Sequence to fold (216 residues):
Amino acid sequence: MIVAAALPLVAEYGAAVTTGQIARAAGIGEGTIFRAFKDKDELLDACVTEALGTDHVLRALASISLDAPLATRLAEAAEALHIHMERMGTVVGTLHASGHRRGRSPDSGSRGGETALPDGGGGEVPPLDGRGGEAPPPDSRKQSLAALRNAVIELLEPDRAAFRLSPEKVAAAFLGLLSTRLQTPASAPEADAPPLTPDELIAILLHGTLNAPRSA
Fold:
């Protein structure tokens, strides 16, 4: 409950958020926070863990009806993944920009050392170190990406016979297109071009960019 209340505040204020603000948002006394966490740093670390975790997005993907049309399933999956990636990037990026490192506050020197971020939903989609945050260890990234890919494969499975490629490859392409759309830095040359909408992304995935097969 405390972490859920803290996440929007951490996304807005980064490490500058106060435990008083968090307590008011959670509807509890400030002292209750320190019965659950030894200090604010530990609470901020818990927020990072929650933001990077895949539980929410995996539940969202699992709730998508397999009876829905393929394009609808993919659109709902894109929305769920978009929300996950945006929250992850915002929370971790804001904390990083305000000086917080996992296990260390901005003014606490090397206390506790630099600890890698915990396993989460980002994996290689998107790589957090490219958005101002700290990337999880490679093994954690692989596990997280595998969990997301398997969830997307399950959504594609009812239409296996309709694909020219295996659902495994289609899922990898879908995640790759989606992550590229979300993580393009504002300073990149391609950032001047309007980003693909989810519908356009799905249309390219399913039908390519040609008006008709063999039209080029």
Summary: Residues 104-135, 184-188 have pLDDT under 50 and may be disordered. The two ends are 56 Å apart (CA to CA).
